[in-house]
Amino acid sequence: MEKKKIKVLQAIRQGKVGGGESHILSLVKHIDKTIFEPVVLSFTDGQMITELNHTGIDNFVIPSEKAFDFTTWSKVKKLMQQEQVDLVHIHGTRATSNIYWAAKKLGLPVVYTIHGWSFHDDQSLPVKKARILFEQWITKKTDCNISVSASNQKTGRDNISNFNSTVIYNGIDVEHFSPYNTERRSLRKELNIPADAFVFSFIGRTTIQKNPLGLIKAFKTIKEANPKALLLMVGDGELKEAAVQLVKELSLEKHVVFEGFRTDVADILFSSDVYCLPSLWEGFPIGLLEAMAMAKPVIATKVDGSSEIIHHKKNGLLIEPQRDEMLSGAMLELMNNETLRNELAKAARQTITSNFDVCKMTRQIENIYTNILSDN
């Protein structure tokens, strides 16, 4: 008789693809399916759901845009019973507010991955305190907390008494994100980008966190220094319209290309010269790992997980957040120094293949699942 597989419910707030969603896609793809059976729950539809359908992974959407949406709790509980879930792995705070109660009602063990804390210094004090209190409550109730970086863990310890977690760094598919992969192709012609353009790329959500407006302002200096410079901005978010408007105000329309969400990230990177991530905060940015795996010189800000990946002028450039002049200076330095670009690119690829492979990440998470279930 075939042994029953361990059914693990991966739950996240939205079905759009961001860092947490990419993490889930990688995890369910590479998890040992002779032992585990993954199923995914989201509260909005989106590209992640489409990707799961393509790969044949069971998934469900219970529509809800709200935290603490009591109307969803019974639906979540019913789904867990229907799917005979053995363990629940929640990704992010918003999902936790609508998942945890049902899981504990059924006596299911819960793993909570903190891809980035819900509290930040730019929030009002009452909002920040309320979010810290909720994070404190939930992290003490789960069977295991996973921090995606040491700095992510430190932030928890600095703000939450007796916070405990296991650090498991995000990993990516280093064969897919490889400049040597024969499937890679340049998209410059498709995107109407001149073959001789020097392309800075930004791939991610156009949100306050990612600071796309700061990047556009910094790029104006670059365009003035070299008219062949081009900024490729890929992604959607609440600042997309503001970004388009800023480009018009700065008369950069011929030098900035906007694209919405795309699944061919590796080809976008293959078509780029330098990758920029000017975030105000991060958990452990998967986009940065992907760019470095593609042997692209990268510029990122000295925040959280980014600082654990990049060693300044060894495998990338680090700048202070919200310093447009530092960002433009780093962009100019890389554009004008081919030797430095090549050195950083080679070291970047080596960093990722040695430390951040998705298989290593997946095996560590599998060990957590089996240890928790054996204890239960």
From TrEMBL:
Keyword Transferase assigned to the entry: answer is yes
Keyword field contains Cytoplasm:
no
Tell me where in this chain the Glycosyltransferase subfamily 4-like N-terminal domain is found. Answer: 17-175
What the entry lists under InterPro entries is as follows: Glyco_trans_1, Glyco_trans_4-like_N, Glycosyltransferase_grp1, Reg_chr_condens
Q: Which domain of life is it from?
A: Bacteria
Q: Which residues form the Glycosyl transferase family domain?
A: 184-350
What keywords would UniProt list here? Transferase
Q: Name one Pfam family in it.
A: Glyco_transf_4
A Gene Ontology molecular function term of the record: glycosyltransferase activity
Which parts form a coiled-coil structure per UniProt? none
What is this protein identified as? Answer: Glycosyltransferase involved in cell wall bisynthesis
